[in-house]
Amino acid sequence: MRTMAKYRYDRIGEELKREIADIVKNEIKDPGMGFVSITLVEVAGDMRHAKVFYSVLGGEGERKATEASIKRAAGFIRREVASRLSLRYTPELTFIFDDSIEHGIKIAKILNEQIKQGENGSDEQSDSEEK
């Protein structure tokens, strides 16, 4: 059973995620900022710190440029969050690159290749059995 405190942290994390995603998408005009998705926000028990996990569409170069842009904009993002949400304390935001989406894409490609190889192998076997 979930405790009320855990539910509150999750709810605040979702609010932070929504607001940060909106700020990154609509307010930051840095040309180095790539296509960023905020994937998760974990709020600490004292509500003073939050880990913001993000992913970037593109290669390593875009990831590095986006990481630098986010670091430059971190203070601005925190101020915007403070003005949008009424929290006693606006958490200190720590941005962490999340490669889980890239990892999932790699796994999906490998699985698709294995499925295609399996289908090709079974087609060859059924052709040889018919002859």
Please outline what is shown here:
The protein has helices spanning 4-26, 60-84, 100-130; strands at residues 35-43, 49-57, 92-97. It is α+β, with helices and mostly antiparallel strands and 131 residues long. Strand 2 (49-57), helix 2 and strand 3 (92-97) form a beta-alpha-beta unit.
Give a verbal description of the structure.
The chain is an alpha+beta fold and 131 residues long. The protein has 3 helices and 3 strands. A 3-stranded mixed beta sheet has the order 1-2-3, sandwiched between helices. α2 (60-84) links the parallel β2 (49-57) and β3 (92-97). The longest helix is centred in the last third of the chain and has 31 residues, at 100-130.
Provide keyphrases for this structure.
three-stranded mixed beta sheet; 131 residues; alpha+beta
Helix content: 55-70%
In percent, how much strand structure appears in the residues?
15-25%
The largest beta-sheet arranges its strands as 1-2-3
Radius of gyration: 21 Å
Shape: flat
Poorly predicted sequence stretches spanning 5 or more consecutive residues: none
Mean pLDDT across all amino acids: 85
- Quaternary state of this entry equals single chain
Q: How many alpha or pi helices?
A: 3
Structural class: alpha+beta
- Biggest β-sheet, characterized? 3 strands, mixed
Query: Helix and strand succession?
Result: HEEHEH
Distance between the termini: 62 Å
Number of strands: 3
